[in-house]
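For reproducibility, we list the full input for the S-adenosyl-L-homocysteine complex.
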Amino acid sequence: MPPDFAHEREQMVRHQIEKRGITNSGVLNAMRTVPRHLFVPLEMREQAYADYPLPIGSDQTISQPYIVAFMTALLNLTGSEKVLEIGTGSGYQAAVLSLLAREVVTVEYLPALARSAGDTLRDLGYLNVTVHQGDGSLGWVDQAPYDAIMVTASAPKAPEPLLKQLKPEGRMVLPVGGRGVQWLELWQQENGIWLPEVSLPVAFVPLRGAFGWQDDHE
Ligand code: SAH
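The corresponding predicted structure, in tokenized form, follows.
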């Protein structure tokens, strides 16, 4: 039988996530449940539960487990939400979200990644996740409005189309800043105005597309 990494997954939750102050039991359970090793390339499996991001091909990365948990916790999901994720990558973050929301719509720019993430999610039975290929910096208008949005690639600023596709009481979390380092921002409406609250410094790969970074140069 192939290893199920149950011990590694439990250690990850205890030492990387709980110890750093995440208490949301839904998030901890989701991180205990999703088999992260099945979302990374075969040669990375042994490292799947380590305390750092991993390459997933096409120059992209799956975030460090703690960052996945931290961003998920910021969305305060209760199980009834429709969530939009931009930057499907491996599909791991979408799987975590799918255990905490009613429905997850996720958009990936690179066709090869969109295809493989869609296959992985389907094979593992995450049936409330829909993967689309396209420019997610424009959101995904067909299924808007959303209760929550998570962007897992770094933007020069919060993309306008995404704020437009959020419900007034919705929340959006995304990394905003320079090409190397960004700050995680949580956007919510206060008196009818969208405002960001800044939390952790992070390092995400760049968001492409109309409201992302336009080229590969620094
Ligand atoms: N959430 C992913 C990791 C994201 S890595 C996971 O759990 O594995 C960032 C991803 O954003 C990459 O796959 C990259 O191709 C994608 N991306 C970059 N710009 C994008 C855009 N404009 N629309 C959709 N996806 C984008």
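The chain has a mean pLDDT of 96. The longest strand covers residues 166-177. Both points were considered when choosing residues for closer inspection.
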